[in-house]
Design a protein that fits this description.
heterodimer, A: mainly alpha, B: 9 helices, elongated
């Protein structure tokens, strides 16, 4: 077997493993919310996650993948020694995978995204030189890690406030919920469709004009809204449910909305996080195939496909259990709060995916939850845990970097 | 597992626990009417049995109060000030303590009420217990308040429940005046020490209504921005 084949095999296996890990662990944070709110059963959540994670990865995952693949490292610097780039990307995959396993065992909160970016920057500095890193791009990525939780927090805050104002704090919450919830459903469907159209259909070979994109997004938003309204009309309200908690029946309407936003967050997660696994893998495969580093090389679509499959496998084999655990712990996110949280987070993540910025879905969700808390909508939030989560990436970056430097020399020693 | 960190952000809602606590407190206070029935019938065994039950419930409320306090660290981010919530909890707990004190005093001294008092006491006790029941209604609205972000229509609902509570409390004040007047009429013919303790019991019962009213005003404080 020649080296190129070994590289491709290694990259494929490692990439698949990373995607598997993301499916097993990461998806639960997004999909636990509808479980906690009892809007979906575990089985339904897993099916929705499988479909929409895959669709997100496949249709809208290209942009972030290309950032990880060739945006962080300046390709000019690696042009003379394509092998070094291969070693580095393989090292990054192993480093990130290993760090995630270690951190998970120790109970530290880590982000896949931060680990992989840290790993790539780490090996690039040591293996290719400080100048090889596109610091402008890295700066933008790090900025996005600060901006994304804040943005999604602000969105969640205003979404929940609007729900309180338009529905919950009125004389007839059920009537108003029936009136306004379809609008939220439309907004969710429109947003997801638009990003898919703008970013996803290019590599499938469909080219549409801006006006066409908008009109298709409006139509599909309306279709999703129609389906939602159909299910809302089928809901049965039982006044005796309101005895213990007066908003029990209103929350039923929000459950429908929550199903839609659960699809959205799964899609968003797939579009952003699959790149962590697939980006380095794609880099290795394209260099190994062509023998040179080119900025223009087109990524084969099947690589995104592999990433999507990996996530679904992880989800099916292990993710179910994690989703159940997480869901049981976050019952505080009732459908009206949970939807605000999910819609805010998925909007933020999808926007980031569209601009090719790798961000952490979990951190974005944390930001959204804090936004809900600021709107006085949640019983109690543990701020010390929030602190730990945000502190963790300060440790994660150097940890990913050091591990990838170690594996970089390891591969260099073996193969050359 | 990294994913569990997401769920760890959510602390157990203190409001649900506050409601549980109030539920037990109200159960405890709710024993007073049957306790007084037994005392007035001079059925000391029955009175002792009810007193025991009151003590058990008071203890349960106490344990829950301690647990709740431990679960409210400073790093908790809540829609209301932590101090206000802890003070509300303290007032809730006092209602149970007060019931136990009254019952304990009566059982300890094996008190027997003269007929003039025995005729008036049940109504007075019942109204004071009603005040506590109304206070529980206020606490039961806490989760609805969280749902609506402590604003809007729900605030009006809670305000009207508190108004009702206030009027029950002023009724008990009037009843107290009546009971005292009845005791004053006959106090010359009774052993002075007994009379002293009758007054103490009458005041103690009224205190249950006062505490209940204070629960309402504590919740009003939560509503104020």
């Amino acid at each position: 077997m020649d080296h190129a084949t070994i590289y491709i095999l290694l990259a494929g296996v490692l990439g698949l493993f990373m995607a598997w890990g993301i499916g097993a662990n990461d998806v639960a944070n997004a999909m636990g919310t509808p479980i906690g709110a009892k809007a979906l059963t575990i089985k339904q959540a897993v099916i929705i996650a499988a479909i929409f994670e895959f669709a997100g990865a496949f249709l809208a995952g290209g942009q972030v993948t290309s950032t990880i693949r060739k945006g962080i490292i300046d390709s000019g610097a690696a042009a003379q020694s394509p092998e070094l780039l291969i070693f580095g990307m393989l090292a990054s995959l192993i480093a990130a995978g290993l760090w995630l396993v270690i951190a998970s065992r120790a109970g530290w909160p880590v982000s896949t995204t931060h680990t992989i970016v840290g790993a790539i920057v780490g090996f690039a500095i040591v293996g290719l030189g400080v100048d090889a890193v596109s610091w402008g791009k890295v700066g933008k990525i790090v900025m996005s890690w600060v901006v994304s939780p804040v943005l999604s927090g602000a969105l969640a805050f205003f979404l929940l406030r609007s729900v309180q104002k338009l529905i919950l704090n009125t004389d007839d919450p059920i009537k108003n919920a029936k009136k306004y919830v379809p609008i939220y459903i439309f907004a969710t469907g429109f947003m997801i469709s638009l990003v898919t159209l703008f970013k996803g259909l290019k590599h499938i070979g469909l080219h549409l004009s801006t006006a066409q994109n908008y009109s298709i997004a409006v139509v599909s938003g309306l279709v999703i809204m129609g389906v939602g309204m159909f299910y809302i009309s089928k809901l049965k309200f039982d006044p005796s449910d309101d005895k213990e908690f007066h908003f029990a029946n209103v929350e039923k309407i929000f459950s429908i909305l929550m199903v839609v936003t659960a699809c959205a967050i799964a899609f968003a997660h797939g579009s952003n996080d699959v790149a962590n696994a697939v980006g380095p893998m794609a880099a290795v495969i394209s260099i190994a195939n062509e023998g040179v580093v080119t900025q223009k090389s087109v990524m084969p679509v099947w690589i995104l496909f592999v990433g999507g499959i990996g996530i679904v496998l992880g989800l099916a084999m292990y993710g179910k259990k994690v989703i159940a655990t997480v869901g049981n712990n976050i019952t505080e996110l009732t459908p009206s709060r949970g939807f605000a949280c999910l819609l805010a987070a998925s909007t933020t993540v999808v926007i980031a995916s569209g601009t090719g910025l790798p961000i952490s879905t979990t951190h974005t969700l944390v930001g959204a939850v804090l936004g809900i808390g600021l709107a006085r909508g949640i019983g109690a939030l543990n701020l010390s845990v929030v602190g730990t989560i945000f502190m963790s990436w300060i440790i994660t970056l150097p940890a990913g970097a050091l591990l990838s430097i170690f594996f970089f020399y390891f591969f260099k020693g073996i193969f050359s | 597992m990294p994913s569990n960190y997401f769920s760890k952000i959510f602390s157990q809602s203190p409001f649900t626990a506050m409601q549980e606590h109030m539920e037990i407190v109200e159960q405890c206070v709710q024993q007073l009417p049957s306790f007084f029935t037994a005392v007035i019938k001079e059925d000391h065994n029955q009175a002792k049995a009810v007193y025991k039950e009151i003590g058990k419930l008071e203890h349960k409320a106490d344990a829950l109060k301690k647990k709740l306090r431990l679960h409210m660290p400073k790093s908790l981010f809540m829609p209301v000030a932590r101090r206000d919530l802890l003070e509300l909890l303290l007032v809730q707990d006092k209602a149970a303590n007060q019931s136990k004190d009254i019952a304990g005093l009566i059982v300890g001294r094996k008190m027997i009420f003269p007929e003039a008092l025995a005729n008036l006491l049940p109504d007075y006790v019942k109204r004071c217990v009603d005040a506590c029941k109304q206070a529980k209604k206020v606490i039961n609205e806490l989760d609805e308040l969280v749902e609506t972000g402590f604003a809007g229509k729900e605030v009006k609902v809670v305000a009207s429940i508190i108004n009702e509570l206030d009027s029950i409390e002023s009724e008990t004040d009037k009843l107290q005046v009546k009971v005292r007047a009845a005791l004053m009429k006959i106090e010359k013919d009774l052993p002075p020490v007994d009379v002293m303790f009758y007054y103490k019991v009458i005041e103690g019962i009224g205190e249950v209504a006062d505490i209940s009213e204070r629960i309402g005003s504590r919740v009003e404080l939560l509503l104020a921005k």
